[in-house]
Amino acid sequence: MALTTAPFVMRDVTLSLKPVASGTAEEYRCQLNKAQITPAGGGGASITYDTFCATFSEQSGGATFTLDLGGFQAYADVADLSILLWNSAGEKYTFVLTPLGGTISATNPGFTGEVTLIEAVVGGTANQYATFEVSLPCSAKPTAIVAPPVMADEESRAEAAENEPVAA
């Protein structure tokens, strides 16, 4: 089969993170040089259980996924990704990754899922930029999307606006 579309170069990636509990989505682009969803494992392991009557066998689980990020450490602003990872470790966040940047559409899909934040490395080597790489575990397989998702806070604001009484 002939390739009908050209491969793309990772240049204009957009990554948004929003706390699951509450809060607003923040976009991280300029601190990152790597953003990818990585599957690990495969079809799971085969589990066999023998009894005196029969042998039972089944496949366990499937692939697990991580959101792998790399970038530089920055601590000058509380909005820096390095600070977020350090201060919010253990918290669940919704992410939206758009590999081609721009508006999510049928020809520019994005991916969304839920991750648990973990701390990234702090510090580094003399006379070099302080960088980090971190693999954030996803709670389930991320979903490919062709329209920008509506975040929970945006839904709440829209519902509140619909329910406001109209001035006479």
Helix/strand layout:
Blueprint (H helix, E strand, L loop, with lengths): L13 E6 L6 E3 L3 E9 L5 E5 L4 E5 L4 E9 L8 H7 L4 E7 L11 E7 L14 E7 L5 E3 L6 H12 L5
Antiparallel strand pairs: 1-2, 1-7, 3-6, 4-5, 6-9, 7-8, 8-10
Task: Describe the structure using short key phrases.
3-stranded antiparallel beta sheet, single chain, globular, 168 residues, 5-stranded antiparallel beta sheet
**How would you write the strand order of the largest sheet?**
2-1-7-8-10
State Rg. 21 Å
Low-confidence stretches: none
Give a count of the beta strands, DSSP E runs of length 2 or more.
Answer: 10
Q: Helical element count?
A: 2
Shape descriptor: globular
The number of domains is: 1
Query: In angstroms, what separates the terminal alpha carbons?
Result: 64 Å
What is the typical, i.e. mean, pLDDT? 83
What is the helix content?
10-25%
- What characterizes the major β-sheet? 5 strands, antiparallel
Query: Could you give the order of the helices and strands?
Result: EEEEEEHEEEEH
The percentage of residues in β strands lies in 35-45%
Task: Write a concise synopsis of the structure shown.
The chain has a 5-stranded antiparallel β-sheet with strand order 2-1-7-8-10, with no helix packed on it. A 3-stranded antiparallel β-sheet has the order 3-6-9, with no helix packed on it. Strands 4-5 form a two-stranded antiparallel sheet. The protein has helices at residues 81-87, 152-163; strands at 14-19, 26-28, 32-40, 46-50, 55-59, 64-72, 92-98, 110-116, 131-137, 143-145.
